[in-house]
Each structure stands twice: as C-alpha cells, then as structure tokens.
Write a structure and sequence with these properties.
The complex is a heterodimer of chains A (174) and B (116).
Chain A (H helix, E strand, L loop, with lengths): L1 E5 L6 H11 L4 E5 L5 H15 L4 E5 L14 E6 L1 H9 L10 H12 L2 E7 L12 H20 L2 E6 L2 E6 L4
Parallel strand pairs in A: 1-5, 1-6, 2-3, 2-4, 4-5
Antiparallel strand pairs in A: 6-7
Helix pairs in contact in A: 3-5, 4-5
Chain B lengths: L1 E5 L5 H7 L7 E2 L8 E2 L2 H7 L4 H8 L4 E5 L10 H20 L2 E6 L2 E7 L2
Parallel strand pairs in B: 1-4, 1-5, 2-3, 3-4
Antiparallel strand pairs in B: 5-6
Classes of the chains: A alpha/beta (174), B alpha/beta (116).
C-alpha cells in the first residue's frame, strides 16, 4: 500500500508520517533523500533524526537511484522523505548536468514499493506562490508537479497535511 | 462558469479536459471567444489594474483556470506584489459567481463549491 503526503513546509508531514509508520508493521526503513547542504540542511536532518530516535527505523541515506535500492528485509514499512529532494537530486547531477527526473523518480518509487507492504511517501507543493523564477527552477517546479500527479495516481491514499491535520484527497485514513 | 484553481503543474488543464474540453477550446486570451481560459494570473502579473476588466470578461466563460499564488513569500517587487494580490482577489470574485469551484492538489480534484 502506498500513502502519499503533501503540504507546505512545516505543516506536520514528517511527524504525521512517522507516527503512521510506527503503527504499521516492521521492519521500518527511513529512506532519506535530502543532501545535507549548508547549515540549514544539517539542522533539518539533525531535527528529523531526533524525531525518529527510539522509533525503530533503520535509516538509509540515498540521494538518487532508488530503482537499484535493495532493502535487506522485505515486506515491512518504508518512509521516503522527500520527493522534492529526490526530484532535485535526479534532475541536477553532482557535475551540474540537468536532465528530466520524471522516469527515474517514478521507477525508483515503484521499485521501493514492490519491496514493502507499506510505503509512505512525502512530497511538497512548491508551485503555490507567485515567484517567477529562472527557467531552470520553473522546469523543476513543473517536473515536481508532474511527478506528484503520477505518484497520486499510483498511491492508495493521498493526504494533504494542513497545520498537522491530514485531509484525505484519495483513499482513506489508515 | 467552473473555476479551477491550484498550484503550478497540479493538473488543472488535465481536469478541464476530463470535463470534455479539447486543446482547441483552451486559450490564455480572455477576449478571443474560446470556452476555457487558463493562466489568468499571468495577465495580472503583467498589469495588476485589470481585475475588473478580466472579471467582466471571464464571468461568461465556461471554465476559468487560475493558479493559486498567495502561499509563498510576498514578492519584493511592487508590480509582482500587486499582481499576486490581484490574482487572489480575482479568484474570490470569480468563485462567488461560479457554479462550481475545483481545487487541484497532486492531480486530484476537490470540489470546494457547488457540484459538477
């Protein structure tokens, strides 16, 4: 079963997703796609690590190429955070080369989902402002939008988190 | 009129197509007589003073599509700041008249007013 969570920054997606994951069967994996860029990135990662402590997650830090990830123990619960980072990492490689991330992100999620009984995927809506950004950034915003639509189609449940409250857009609350 | 709002690339035009409209029905120009107008926010980003004129033109359309643009940082530039405000206010005006308002998130429609 795939559950997709979206919502703005700091709307409670991570903590809701974690509390959901601990109610589902183990083994539990936390798949971290965020690269620790700068002070802010490191702080965010430290905060999320602290939140997960003692909840029985094995953390796998992986920035791209989920299509070749093999989970040691199959049939458990995985929490993938987050699609906005994974999309950026798949779109811009370490050498700065830009390519369309869509197929790699979608096949990666499908590959992980096939190895778990529950996959929780966190994403973000970054297209809800009036920012007029560089062409490259707008390509990213649109790629993430397309990926979110495809993930929502794949998912059994889709929630939008608003102030920590899940609003069910598809499926049901689990 | 049906108003469809949502983030950039959230599936707004695809949803309009699911209502039976085809590519030929879509336009970004409210004055060219086509049935579905999209990208309305861009007109106001270019000239924020056109709210009333756009409202008058769009009220008679079958479908109006506008990005939700008010959830980020307030833009520093005056013209963009006023354009963003105007886009929000225009959506409020259009939503009052609309027989249905649909909000798209991740390609999923939520009907927040009326029915389709």
């Amino acid at each position: 079963m795939i559950t997709l969570m979206t919502g703005g920054s700091a709307c409670g997606k991570s903590s809701y997703a974690e509390s959901l994951a601990v109610r589902l069967n183990g083994p539990r994996y936390y798949l971290a796609a965020m690269q620790p860029y700068g002070e802010g990135g490191a702080e965010k990662i430290a905060k999320h690590r602290k939140m997960r402590r003692g909840k029985g997650f094995e953390t796998i830090e992986r920035y791209r190429d989920y299509a070749s990830l093999a989970l040691e123990n199959k049939g458990g619960t995985a929490l993938l955070e987050c699609i906005c980072n994974l999309t950026a990492n798949e779109m811009f490689d370490d050498a700065g080369k830009v390519s369309d991330p869509y197929a790699r992100v979608i096949s990666g999620v499908e590959h992980v989902a096939a190895q778990c009984s529950n996959l929780i995927v966190i994403t973000n809506d970054v297209g809800s402002d009036a920012g007029v950004y560089s062409d490259e950034t707008m390509r990213y915003v649109r790629a993430l939008g397309r990926i979110n639509i495809a993930l929502a189609q794949m998912a059994d449940n889709v929630y939008e988190l608003v102030a920590g409250i899940p609003i069910v857009l598809k499926g049901k609350l689990i | 009129m049906i108003l469809i709002i949502g983030a950039e690339a959230s599936g707004k035009r695809e949803f309009a197509k699911s209502l039976g409209y085809s590519d030929d029905d879509f336009t970004t120009d409210p004055f060219d007589g086509k049935r579905v107008v999209y990208g309305v926010q861009s007109i106001l980003f270019a000239d924020h003073t056109r709210t009333q004129e756009l409202y008058d033109a769009l009220a008679d359309k079958e479908v109006v599509i506008c990005n939700e643009v008010g959830s980020g940082v307030i833009p520093i530039g005056r013209e963009m700041r006023l354009g963003r405000e105007a886009a929000g206010r225009l959506c409020v005006l259009l939503a009052k008249d609309a027989e249905a308002v649909v909000r798209m998130v991740c390609g999923i429609p939520t009907i927040i007013k009326g029915q389709i």
